[in-house]
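Researcher: Next entry in the queue.
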Amino acid sequence: MKSAKHQRAYRRGRSAEHIAVWWLRLKGYQILGRDVRNPFGEIDIIARRGKLLIFVEVKARRDRHSGLQAVSLGQRRRIDRAAAAWLAARPDLGALDQRFDLVIVAPAGWPHHVKDAWRVDQQDIV
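Model: Structure for this entry, 126 residues:
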């Protein structure tokens, strides 16, 4: 059984993802997937807006600053690989431009949406 601390962190993360989905919808994004998992990793939210496909990582943190530093190089690599695998199964979306965003949900204030939070660098993926 998981510890109470782990369970609270999981619930906080799921709640942050729910808030991020609604925030993105309010901004005009169409949500294509949530909590998408494959053998390469996990993507919190996959969204589309026009000709842009966005892979979103959501972080629940005490403040924006710690949220900005919360996505490690290893996490970015896993998300990049998971996104590539997801796209391989969805060739109909392959022609869209792609972006990796971050949504930080902190206790006070609105969610903070960081567009183009990182770029895929082929040598980072390997």
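Model: The chain has one domain: 4-125.
Researcher: Noted, moving on.
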